[in-house]
Amino acid sequence: MRTKHVASLTLVVIAASTMGAVPAPEDRAGTISGTVTFTGTPPKMRPIDMAKEPSCAAQHATPVMTENVVTGPGNSVQNVVVYISAGAPPAPAPAEVAHYDQKGCEYIPHILALQAGQPLEIGNSDKTSHNIHPLATVNSEWNKSTPPGSPPIKATWDKPEFIAVKCNVHPWMHGYFAVLPTAHYAVTGNDGTFSLKGLPPGKYTVTAWHEKFGTQSQEITVAGGDVPKVDFVFKALPY
Amino acid sequence: MGKLFAVIVAVITAISAGVFIARIWWLPPDISVLGAGLDHQLEETMVASGVLFVASQLILALFAWQYADAGDGRPIKIFPGGATPMVVMATILVSVEILVLTLVGTKVWGGIFLSPPDPNALKIDVQAEQFAYYFRYPGPDGALGVAHPELIDAGNGNFYGLDPANDTTARDDIVSASLVVPVNRPVLLSLHAKDVGHAFYVPELRIQQDFVPGLVIPLQFTATQVVKKEIVCTQLCGLGHFNMRAYIDVVPPDQFEQWLKDQAGQ
Which CATH number does B122-265 carry? Predict the structure, then answer.
């Protein structure tokens, strides 16, 4: 599971350690955690035939599978973006660069969650050209060629949006940028779990987004010291 | 200067003819049933045009040598026989030659493009798109599902826009990025393009056919050797054109049946 911390957490720790007994508000910060699962029958993922690009095919001992619906043990769902869609105090975009790679003719990671305004670098680790084409509708759409060995593309998404990404050269390549309005987000791993840390007491809307299953939201109140559990269950269809 | 020109023309002619006679940069070996006819036709064309080419260049060299400017300042006054009858005669000669080649070649061309397909031909639906080919085989039900362009979802592996939720015939369709065919069995391809013009070119099969958006173009061949060769696009179709290719894998019949079963299992 991938979690991003509040940008100011380090400062808070430093402040708390220097100010001794003065309690910082984050001392009472809560964590929202839970699991994303499905009911029903999810679609079967298919092997991707990379025959046309031998340099990519050679990087995979077994065929890469499509990643639209990746499930794990106990009906868990991977690649769900869980984030605070309302209620979180505004946080400036972090200066930390988010990295997205084109490797083995796949997008790594399949879903890159980042904050609106956060710097982004897109690399090409392959020995072939890619042409990355984020299909943005709220932000400005672009597509750029990345020949092998080219320097990373630097980009920024200014507005929150789930942006599908495709490669104009390799039709099977598919991924997402999850551009979020908050610093509190997570992408579920294979066990379907997530945790959103460092939330001061308050009322929040927690939203779970999945590229195939859609979006669900829940209203959650975090009180001091509370660790509310929030589970999301998506309904899966075989086709 | 005129004599030097004559020598250069003669040397260029000899080298050009030599390249063809020695078969440097010749065609790759043919692996198809109809290829032999095409190769024969090509050789006839090469010989007919080659003999004319060599003869005309050598005559040019001869005349350049014979009548090179001697430096005496003579003006050219006459063109023996006048130019018009010679041009007319040359035009008629070349026309007859092209007509004969066309008539002879029609039989070979018709064998590929005009003859009805073999009823036992293996039918494969071929889709060209920027910048890949996809090949669709009917599954165990023997029928292809209907393609709905609005349902195309390449990232989910749905390159044809199939609707397995509502169309049961589409559920077992086999979609491959390689063209796998059994050796010595006639194959009938249906070519269609998803976006722009593309081409299907396999030099070893002696086949080159364009995809035209909006048209479904039949194309038949029979491969005679177990080989793996490249299929390339020869119509400039966009920035990834250089990388648009697939492989044709000609396999023994039992291996083909096994491949179909393996694919259907996925």
Answer: 2.60.40.420
